[in-house]
Amino acid sequence: MEATPLWERSKENAAPLERGRSVVALERSIAAMESEEDRREQSRLSEHYERLVRTSEALDYEASGDDDPLIHWLSYIKYHQDAFPSDTHSQFLLFERCLRALSPIQKYANDPRFVRVCCMYADKTDRPLEVFQHLHQQRIGSDIAVFWMAWAFKAEQQQNYQFAEKILDKGIRKKAQPLKLLLQRHKQFQRRMTRHWLNATQAEEENED
């Protein structure tokens, strides 16, 4: 079914003119008004989330009585991803701010929600392996399987296969949770490595022939 034209849906907002209105002009006018309303709403929501997260960025955030500032960061990140999907730079800065604000809070070190944010941040950097190493030194993510999986995945992407397996093995030794998922990913990695070495060996033999 054909969608109702914009001017038809909003004609109660259009004042009648003696000479009649141009449909195209009316469409443009209404679209501009709705666009402006959208911008105002986005600005209002951004300011709302900024007020919520700034509390945790303050040195005396504990005085605010907010038991879980992470929830505000997660809401802000989701809102930003939905409202501005193409603005990846601002999303990256938001991840970075979240890490700076919450990394010193011990209770978040192995909170799966925060660890996921850390992994997403590392994935967007130019040197993800260094970021993961830094997080590990801060004891962030040690008990969470997704941390080791994400770290190993970035190593594998860079063809650092031995290091990737070392990371997965270390996560398993630490019994990072859920351990079953980590073991499953380790088996998948080993299968990929088997295919990789078989293909490499076959290519070498063909070159020798």
UniProtKB/TrEMBL annotation:
<dbReference type="InterPro" id="IPR015661">
    <property type="entry name" value="Bub1/Mad3"/>
</dbReference>
<dbReference type="GO" id="GO:0032991">
    <property type="term" value="C:protein-containing complex"/>
</dbReference>
<dbReference type="GO" id="GO:0051754">
    <property type="term" value="P:meiotic sister chromatid cohesion, centromeric"/>
</dbReference>
<feature type="domain" description="BUB1 N-terminal">
    <location>
        <begin position="56"/>
        <end position="209"/>
    </location>
</feature>
<dbReference type="GO" id="GO:0007094">
    <property type="term" value="P:mitotic spindle assembly checkpoint signaling"/>
</dbReference>
<dbReference type="GO" id="GO:0004672">
    <property type="term" value="F:protein kinase activity"/>
</dbReference>
<protein>
    <recommendedName>
        <fullName>BUB1 N-terminal domain-containing protein</fullName>
    </recommendedName>
</protein>
<dbReference type="Pfam" id="PF08311">
    <property type="entry name" value="Mad3_BUB1_I"/>
</dbReference>
<dbReference type="InterPro" id="IPR013212">
    <property type="entry name" value="Mad3/Bub1_I"/>
</dbReference>
